[in-house]
Amino acid sequence: MALRTVLCTLASVRRSDLITSVAALLFSAATALAGTPQRVVSINLCTDQLALLLASPGQLVSVTRLSHEDTDSVMGEQARALPANGSGAEEVYLLKPDLVLAGTFTSMATISMLRNLGIEVVQFAPARALSDVPERLAQMGEALGREAEARAMINHFNAELAALSVAPAHRPRAALTYVNNYSSGRHSLAGDVLYAAGFDNVAEEAGLGSVGVLPLEQLVLLAPDVIIQGRNYPGAARAEDNLDHPALSSLKGTYMAGELTDRDWVCGTPTVLNAVRTMVDLRKQVEARQ
């Protein structure tokens, strides 16, 4: 009789411990879920793409209209599965988000209004170097409660970039030129793509550190090994005249690579590696011509 009492008591204690443990686990899961945003709205093209890469199914409920355009977004197909927004505070508020993802250049009036309405807004700075990509991924992973997924993506990105960034024996001199004679120096995302692919950037020789104007006359005098042009937008605008100027085609020894800068260069996401790969292939073409 005494033995039966002891066994019953032990069984009761074990059941009690089990119930306590299960309750603790359920509480922990509920707490974690409560801290994870369930309705996320993005109002910036680059946060659209970072969120599309990392969000759990159903977590992201709206992205910008720009992300639906294949000319601007590398994830147009995925983005078109979600409703588009125009980045306005009133429109976003009606979507009932518990988190809004924005850029540091998003209208402060929009940011302030959303925050005043009690909605959390996380802002992301534009990437100015390839080293910023892991930081943006980590920031998005933290915002969405997807830290593990972000870490895995960062590790893959770093490994791919290291494999692509093997320094060549000789670095050809390259120039980037866009409409209105704008160019990108070493301290910009596009400039860093060039450097990682094994090019020297002639914009540095002209004293251009980040983004600015590289006059056509100066570009011609610099006589780079290759000129990479930005997108020539549809329509007729004087701003685009520099891209078709005969002075460029008359340069002897300069390879005109045509329009190679596109949507892969816009945002600091892992797809920027596509731009690095394209530039590595271009460098090999230039080396073969020399």
UniProtKB/TrEMBL annotation:
Pfam families: Peripla_BP_2. This is Corrinoid ABC transporter substrate-binding protein. InterPro entries: ABC_Transporter_SBP, ABC_transptr_periplasmic_BD. Gene3D superfamilies: Nitrogenase molybdenum iron protein domain. It comes from Pseudosulfitobacter pseudonitzschiae. GO terms for biological process: cellular response to iron ion. Residues 39-290 form the Fe/B12 periplasmic-binding domain. It comes from the Bacteria.
